[in-house]
Amino acid sequence: RVRAIAQRDTHLHYAAVQGLQMCFSDAPAGSDHALAAMAGIEGNPIPFIQTAFDAYWIEQADLNDESVVASLLASLDMVVPDPQSAHAKLMTSRKKAEEMGVFESPSYIIADQLFLGREHLPWIRSLI
C-alpha cells in the first residue's frame, strides 16, 4: 500500500511538471482491449494513444471495455481492427517484451536502459 501511494504521488508530481491533470479511480481497470486495438491499428497509432490516455486518466474510461475502445477509435475515424488478429498481435508483442525483460507497462528501453512507468517520461525526453 505504501508503494502504491508513493507511485501515485510520483505520477501526480510528473503530471504537474507536464501541466497535466490526473484523476485516479478507486479500482484500476485493465487495458487489454485498448492494447489489442493499438496493436491492430494500421498506420500511426499516436492519435489513438493520446485519445486513450485522456480517456483513462482524465475521464476514467474503462479501456478494457470493447465498446469504449470502439468509441475512441470511431471518434478518430479509425477502423476497429479485427479482434482475433489484434489480440494475436498483442500476444506476440507481449512475448517479445518479456524476452527483453519488460514486465510492467508502460516500459521504455532507451540505450539499453529499462525504464518502468510513465513517471519517467520527462527524464526519457531529456535523454532522447
Structural notes for this entry:
The protein is mainly alpha-helical and about 130 residues long. The chain has a single domain (about 1-125), classed as Glutaredoxin (3-Layer(aba) Sandwich), CATH 3.40.30.10. It contains 6 helices and 2 strands. The chain has helices spanning about 1-15, 30-40, 45-55, 65-75, 85-100, 120-125, and strands spanning about 105-110, 115. A hairpin with a 2-residue loop joins strand 1 and strand 2 (about 115). The longest helix is centred in the C-terminal third of the chain and has 17 residues, at about 85-100.
Write the layout of secondary structure elements.
Layout: H1 2-17, H2 32-40, H3 46-57, H4 66-75, H5 83-99, E1 107-110, E2 113-116, H6 121-127
Antiparallel strand pairs: 1-2
Helix pairs in contact: 2-5
- For the record, the CATH class is Alpha Beta
CATH topology term: Glutaredoxin
CATH architecture: 3-Layer(aba) Sandwich
- Described by the principal axes of the CA atoms, the overall outline is globular
Portion of residues in beta strands equals: 5-15%
Order of helices and strands: HHHHHEEH
Mean pLDDT: 86
Counting helices, strands and paired strands, the structural category is: mainly alpha
The overall strand count is 2
Query: For the record, what is the CATH homologous superfamily label?
Result: Glutaredoxin
The side-by-side strand order for the widest beta sheet comes to 1-2
What is the rounded Rg? Answer: 15 Å
Largest sheet: 2 strands, antiparallel
Low-confidence residue ranges: none
Number of domains: 1
